[in-house]
């Protein structure tokens, strides 16, 4: 269980391991605030991302003034808490509304909770992913649009009831900030709330200001109260689109206004998500009227009476609609992976898009300038001038990305995975996985839209546990594995499930030539069962350097390879995460690597890398880097010359020999 604690001094994120099913039910049914004494195991800063492209959860919380996470071992003296502050009472009301709306069928519940109180349940994350990929998530994220619609409805209703406008304006000065607190203080809502309040106050003072003046005052107030709001994707889109709307919908047809709005938001979306959906414009043209005239009214009507049977029939229609949207969001044919755009490019694109929305014509120099810069950024990301080897930090596991320059080829060695321990049914939860959390975001941030060859070293979960997830979530052209691994029942199931992918078994002596890189298979020699001793071992010639990747190969198997081959390497990926059962003295003596790379988890339960292994490295004068210390480790080589460099994600860009651990 996770949540937030309010101490006397600050807000702290907490995690807590629920012990029994009855305790789980207690927390699920809780519909009020509680106070308690806590036993805390440790308090530490929020963990930073360890790979490029990962969601920066620490940065996200810092923007909410949350800096620490506490691990709680026990709640003591739990008592119902009745807050006395106005904000506290509004928060209690929010809890009751969320519980009340939970009685609706699935899709109506999601609509009502997100559009009325700004709440999205953890189980609804897949729904948000669909909307995000299709570019319509802004419709279901409470924003100024919804405040504007609510204000319009209130004004029309009060006009019909002959209630004085002056009285309504005074009530709005109280109700608007109350609603802002109720929905969780989202930046988009507060921008709209402040905008409406500024307009009311200026009207009362008799000041005649333009919409741009009111917007500017609102922006200054919002940034004074929360300077970090403008640093988030939501905050940037909220202010930018609000600014664009002032110009567009007064003198532009809906279809062209939608096009221009998409061009305004596109650089921001690509900067944070690294992709766009070709159907975004078309879906917006269809979905915005559907949302405005069908979904939104039904949401408010259903919230008034949650138990009507008709809601089940309407929910079935929404089920069909979202299945269709899910197809379009997950089909890679409709997705363009752009890579992460440079900050300067994003700024230029936003500035040009502002000039574009002010222009009356559709096809003009601003549109052409915009397209040239955007296409140039995408081409630069997809056809880089350098290749790389990246030891992805997946914790206690292996996943290595190798790329070539220019017409880029991509190779992934292993997918990582987590060991699953036996848990009771009530204690099972949808935990994250390294592929969706680390690997795919990193690939997309680099502009990579497919994997040309995937190598599976052996059957262990920490190496191929995420195989099915990767194949379902990301295009892979060919899968390679050591001879005999295809007899594994799990691998057979994967092969049957993906007839569109080529599966190849490899054995000692095979050579895979792929442009800039030659892969030589050193092991296995005979058919095995996918054990550590059967690990697919690859010697790669990359530009003018040699790399050796050994999976979890043990020392006896290393010695057998050295009887068949004589070679030296520049870089060695240590076997079995630095275990003492791998990377023996004979391998180090005969291959003479300059640098060893280790992939292991921080404070892992196995004690990897083992001290005995590190002593062997020292004895043979081999320096090393470990992902547990440095996060992702990357080696880059240039296409035009022999320049190369090693970078780490956590501790700086370029490493000199003196800075690498001995």
UniProtKB/TrEMBL annotation:
Subcellular location per the Swiss-Prot or TrEMBL entry: Cell membrane
One Pfam family it belongs to: Lactamase_B
Membrane-traversing stretches: 130-151, 188-205, 217-248, 254-274, 281-304, 332-355, 367-385
Gene Ontology terms: cellular component: plasma membrane
Primary location class: membrane
Domain Metallo-beta-lactamase span(s) in chain numbering: 396-602
SMART domains: Lactamase_B (SM00849)
GO biological process terms on file: establishment of competence for transformation
Membrane topology of the entry: Multi-pass membrane protein
Entry keywords, A to Z: Cell membrane, Membrane, Transmembrane, Transmembrane helix
NCBIfam families to which the protein is assigned, alphabetical: ComEC_N-term (TIGR00360), ComEC_Rec2 (TIGR00361)
Listed name of the protein: ComE operon protein
Source species of the chain: Companilactobacillus kimchii
């Amino acid at each position: 269980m996770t949540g937030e604690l309010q101490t006397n001094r600050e807000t702290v994120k907490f995690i807590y391991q629920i012990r029994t099913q009855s305790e789980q039910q207690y927390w699920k049914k809780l519909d009020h605030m509680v106070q308690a004494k806590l036993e805390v195991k440790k308090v530490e800063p929020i963990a930073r991302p360890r790979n490029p492209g990962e969601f920066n959860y620490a940065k996200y919380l810092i923007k909410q003034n949350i800096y620490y996470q506490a691990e709680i071992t026990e709640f003591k003296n739990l008592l119902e808490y009745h807050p006395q502050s106005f904000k506290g009472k509004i928060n209690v009301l929010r809890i009751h509304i969320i519980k009340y709306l939970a009685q609706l069928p699935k899709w109506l519940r999601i609509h009502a909770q997100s559009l009325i109180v700004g709440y999205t349940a953890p189980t609804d994350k897949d729904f948000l992913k669909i909307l995000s990929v299709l570019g319509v998530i802004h419709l279901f994220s409470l924003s100024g649009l919804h405040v504007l619609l609510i204000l319009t409805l209130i004004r029309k209703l009060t006009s019909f009831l002959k209630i004085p406008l002056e009285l309504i304006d005074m009530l709005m000065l109280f109700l608007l900030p109350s609603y802002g607190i109720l929905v969780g203080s989202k930046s988009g809502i507060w921008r709209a709330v402040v905008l409406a309040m500024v307009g009311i106050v200026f009207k009362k003072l008799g000041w005649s200001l333009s919409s741009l003046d009111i917007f500017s005052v609102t922006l200054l107030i919002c940034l004074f109260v929360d300077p970090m709001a403008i640093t988030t994707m939501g905050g940037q889109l909220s202010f930018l689109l609000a600014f664009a709307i002032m110009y567009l919908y007064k003198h532009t047809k809906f279809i062209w206004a939608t096009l221009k709005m998409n061009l305004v938001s596109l650089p921001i979306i690509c900067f944070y998500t690294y992709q766009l959906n070709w159907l975004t414009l078309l879906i917006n043209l269809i979905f915005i009227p559907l949302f405005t005239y069908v979904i939104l009214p039904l949401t408010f009507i259903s919230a008034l009476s949650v138990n009507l049977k008709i809601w089940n029939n309407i929910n079935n229609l929404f089920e069909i609609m979202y299945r269709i949207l899910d197809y379009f969001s997950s089909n890679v044919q409709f997705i363009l992976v752009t890579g992460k755009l440079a900050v300067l490019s994003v700024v230029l694109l936003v500035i040009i898009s502002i000039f574009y929305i002010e222009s009356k014509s559709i096809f003009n120099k601003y549109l052409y300038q915009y397209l040239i810069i955007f296409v140039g950024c995408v081409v630069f990301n997809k056809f880089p001038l350098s290749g790389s080897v990246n030891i992805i930090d997946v914790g206690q596991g292996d996943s290595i990305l190798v790329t070539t320059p220019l017409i880029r080829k991509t190779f992934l060695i292993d997918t990582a995975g987590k060991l699953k321990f036996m848990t009771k049914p009530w204690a099972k939860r949808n935990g994250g996985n390294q592929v969706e959390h680390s690997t795919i975001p990193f690939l997309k941030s680099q502009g990579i839209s497919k994997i040309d060859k995937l190598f599976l070293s052996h059957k262990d979960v920490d190496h191929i546990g995420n195989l099915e997830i990767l194949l379902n979530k990301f295009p892979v052209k060919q899968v390679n594995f050591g001879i005999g691994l295809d007899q594994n029942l799990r691998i057979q199931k994967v092969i049957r499930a993906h007839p569109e992918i080529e599966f190849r078994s490899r054995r000692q002596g095979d050579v895979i030539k792929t442009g800039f890189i030659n892969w030589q298979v050193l092991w296995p020699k005979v058919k095995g069962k996918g054990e550590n001793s059967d690990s697919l071992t690859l010697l790669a010639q990359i530009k003018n350097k040699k790399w050796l990747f050994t999976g979890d190969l043990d020392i006896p198997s290393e010695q057998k390879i050295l009887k068949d081959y004589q070679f030296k390497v520049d870089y060695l990926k240590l076997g079995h995460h630095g275990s003492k059962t791998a990377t023996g003295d004979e391998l180090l003596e005969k291959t003479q690597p300059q640098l060893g790379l280790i992939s292991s988890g921080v404070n892992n339960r196995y004690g990897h890398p083992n001290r005995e292994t590190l002593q062997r490295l020292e004895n043979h004068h081999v320096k090393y880097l470990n992902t547990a210390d440095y996060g992702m480790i990357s080696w880059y080589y240039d296409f035009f010359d022999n320049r190369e460099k090693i970078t780490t994600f956590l501790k700086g860009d370029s490493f000199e020999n003196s800075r690498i651990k001995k």
